[in-house]
C-alpha cells in the first residue's frame, strides 16, 4: 500500500487600499476570491504562512473595488468561492440579491431562503460569518426597526458603505 499525500490548496493574497482601510483579499488557485477582510474584523482573515503574495489574480477585483468606491460601479462581476455550511451558503447567496443602494432586514433574508421566524438569529450568525465583505453585501442588512446593527467590519464601515451607496444620508 502506498502512502497518499494530500496537497495543501494554494492561497494567494494581496492587500489594496480603500476608503474604509486596507483590504486583504485571498483567492484559490482557480482565481476565485475566497475572502475580503478589513483590519479589526470580527472573524477576519490574516496572512498565514504558506500563502503566496501575488497581486496578479486580483487585478479585476482591485479595478472593480476602485470603481465601486468612486461611485462608478454598482454590481461586482467577480468569481467568488466562499465555503460554509449549506445553510450559510443559502444566506450568502441571498445577500447577492440585495441591490446596490437598498437595504433589507435579517427577517427578510430568513424569509427569502425559506427559514422559519425563529431562524432569524441563525441568519444573523451566517451573515456575520460572511468571508467576502463588501463583495457579498452583508452591510446592506439592517435591523427590523431600521437600526444599523452588527457588522463584522465595524458599524463605522457599515455606515460609510451605506452612505456611499446612497442608502443613508450623510450624518453630520
Q: Could you walk me through the main structural features you see in this protein, from its secondary elements to its overall organization?
A:
This is Methylated-DNA--protein-cysteine methyltransferase. Its main location: cytoplasm. The active site is at residue 138. Keywords: Cytoplasm, DNA damage, DNA repair, Methyltransferase, Transferase. It is found in: Cytoplasm. The chain has 172 residues and is α/β, with parallel strands linked by helices. It folds into two domains: 11-69, 2-Layer Sandwich (Double Stranded RNA Binding Domain); 86-164, Orthogonal Bundle (Arc Repressor Mutant, subunit A), CATH 1.10.10. Helix content is 27%, strand content 13%. It contains five helices and six strands, in the order ββββααβααβα. The strands form two sheets. A four-stranded mixed β-sheet has the order 3-2-1-4, with no helix packed on it. A two-stranded parallel ribbon has the order 5-6. β1 (11-16) and β2 form a beta hairpin. The longest helix is centred in the middle third of the chain and has 11 residues, at 59-69. The model has no long low-confidence stretch (mean pLDDT 92).
Amino acid at each position: 500500500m502506498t502512502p497518499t499525500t494530500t496537497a495543501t490548496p494554494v492561497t494567494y493574497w494581496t492587500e489594496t487600499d480603500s476608503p474604509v482601510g486596507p483590504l486583504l483579499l485571498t483567492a484559490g488557485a482557480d482565481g476565485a476570491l475566497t475572502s475580503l477582510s478589513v483590519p479589526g474584523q470580527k472573524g477576519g482573515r490574516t496572512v498565514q504562512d504558506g500563502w503566496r503574495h501575488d497581486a496578479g489574480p486580483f487585478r479585476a477585483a482591485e479595478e472593480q473595488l476602485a470603481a465601486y468606491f468612486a461611485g462608478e460601479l454598482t454590481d461586482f462581476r467577480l468569481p467568488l468561492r466562499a465555503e460554509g455550511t449549506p445553510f450559510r451558503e443559502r444566506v450568502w447567496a441571498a445577500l447577492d440579491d440585495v441591490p446596490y443602494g437598498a437595504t433589507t432586514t435579517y427577517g427578510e433574508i430568513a424569509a427569502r431562503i425559506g427559514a422559519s421566524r425563529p431562524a432569524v438569529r441563525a441568519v444573523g450568525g451566517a451573515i456575520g460569518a460572511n468571508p467576502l465583505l463588501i463583495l457579498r453585501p452583508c452591510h446592506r442588512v439592517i435591523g427590523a426597526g431600521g437600526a444599523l446593527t452588527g457588522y463584522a467590519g465595524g458599524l463605522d464601515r457599515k455606515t460609510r458603505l451605506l452612505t456611499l451607496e446612497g442608502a443613508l444620508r450623510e450624518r453630520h
